[in-house]
Input
Amino acid sequence: MRADAERSRRRILDAACEVFLERGPDAPLDAVVRRAGVGPGTLYRRFPDREALVRALVTDLLARLGEAAREARRVEADPWQALRRFVHAAADLRMGAAIVVLLERLVVDEELVAVRRGTVEAVEDLLRAAREAGRLRPDVGMGDLVLLCVRVSRPLPGALAALDADGSLVHRHLDLALAGLAATTDGPLGRALGFDEVIAAAGRPGETMAE
Output
């Protein structure tokens, strides 16, 4: 793909993420066009309908999430810091909030399943390393991590959004939440929630992901 075409695609996907988060998955595609600063023809040549745009956006988010997990593993020698780096990168991508919004409009295909599989493997590798280093509670599964990110990173409603205008509050809350995932001798242990359970509950399994 030519550099200018890739830039247009990136603008459209970033704009779609913002618009769908603000207005839901049924938001007018004209709003995406305006936010992206492209013409309607540019959008429809790449994404002929809403379904194609939603699928491309989720596939893109999952691919970027997987790369964030792999980069965290490469950059951070400490497994706990690698996990922390990944969680904060996921928040910056707004992955958790966006994918939850889009699930109801998502059609699972082979490409999406393949990307999801790679992302799951990369994140599970982070969790496994943190557990083996004795830094992560043994009852934390990928499903727990994903839902935690979803809960913390969703935009604040109404006027409360002004409290996190610069995006720093979500990162503070993520650090507070991560402190609860750290391995300690205190508190009861529960049952780890698997990512396959989250996908099944969302009604978009595509395939069963093994833990």
Notes: The mean pLDDT is 85. DSSP finds ten helices and no strands in the chain.
